[in-house]
């Protein structure tokens, strides 16, 4: 890009692309509509392409505009991350890592890794957010997230991954449910029960794997509730609103009136993987990945 294009041009463009309405965009930006139109025209002239198709009824992005929107989103997100890190570095710190995770990673892996990070790299700060698989992958692709922990064996193209944990599944029941480890035979004993499952928004791959467990036992589950949060699922089970299937590692860290029976004889296994953007030059990410071994 030419030096004549400034970040404000990209910021204005992003707002117009989100609103697809120049008046609404100008109100968000607190500038006049003619002024905003001039800024967009300057950007289009400098790039030598049309970014919007405009008529009296609507505003649409061109193919070039859609491409610029995706790339500008990545660039501006990265700039915000750089600005936060610069402030920390100015105070003598190394910077900040933004880490996403599925809930089960907090029980099985993350606390141990954060302790190691603090011991070996005490000047690296972390920001944690529980997110679904898909949200983490999207955020890493768009530079909103540095590290992710997802329930999947592999990551999409462009995302580096390292498998760090594998887990069996367990059935989760109210504590006083009549089936326990002594009289449990197989999952078909629960064919008439309501099930509370992790939503496919948590991970489509994970959801399909759980459904394949039911297929192997010859029945389709009656699903009464779905959630992306383990605590919500466990609360519903505790209150007798259904039973659940979850990764066994989730039995740690919750003090509720529920019990776990491990499904030792099912072939399905769930994986937890560490992910980050392939080809990253971020030294903080490299240091974190080095802790996994």
From TrEMBL:
Any one cellular-component term (Gene Ontology): protein-DNA complex
Keyword annotations: DNA-binding, Transcription, Transcription regulation
GO molecular function: DNA binding; DNA-binding transcription factor activity
Source taxon at top rank: Bacteria
Residue span, HTH lysR-type domain: 5-62
Family listed: Belongs to the LysR transcriptional regulatory family.
Full protein name: DNA-binding transcriptional regulator, LysR family
């Amino acid at each position: 890009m030419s030096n004549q294009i400034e970040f404000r041009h990209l910021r204005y463009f992003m707002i117009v692309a989100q609103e697809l309405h120049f008046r609404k965009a100008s109100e968000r930006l607190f500038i006049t509509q003619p002024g905003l139109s001039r800024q967009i025209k300057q950007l289009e002239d400098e790039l030598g392409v049309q970014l919007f198709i405009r008529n009296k009824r609507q505003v649409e992005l061109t193919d070039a505009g859609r491409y610029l929107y995706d790339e500008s989103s990545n660039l501006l997100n990265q700039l915000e991350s750089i600005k936060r890190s610069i402030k920390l570095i100015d105070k003598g710190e190394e910077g900040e890592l933004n880490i996403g995770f599925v809930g089960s990673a907090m029980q099985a892996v993350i606390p141990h890794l954060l302790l190691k990070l603090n011991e070996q790299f005490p000047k690296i700060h972390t920001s944690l957010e529980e997110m679904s698989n898909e949200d983490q992958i999207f955020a890493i692709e768009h530079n909103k997230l540095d590290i992710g922990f997802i329930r999947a064996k592999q990551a999409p193209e462009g995302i580096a991954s390292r498998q760090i944990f594998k887990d069996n599944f367990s059935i989760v029941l109210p504590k006083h449910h009549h089936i326990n480890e002594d009289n449990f035979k197989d999952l078909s004993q629960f064919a008439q029960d309501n099930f509370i499952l992790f939503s496919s928004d948590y991970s489509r791959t994970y959801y399909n794997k759980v459904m394949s467990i039911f297929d192997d036992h010859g029945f389709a589950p009656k699903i009464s509730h779905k959630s992306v949060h383990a605590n919500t699922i466990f609360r519903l089970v505790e209150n007798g609103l259904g039973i659940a299937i979850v990764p066994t590692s989730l039995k740690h860290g919750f003090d509720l009136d529920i019990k776990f029976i491990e499904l030792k004889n099912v072939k399905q296994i769930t994986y937890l993987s560490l992910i980050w953007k392939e080809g990253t030059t971020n030294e903080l990410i490299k240091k974190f990945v080095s802790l996994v071994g």
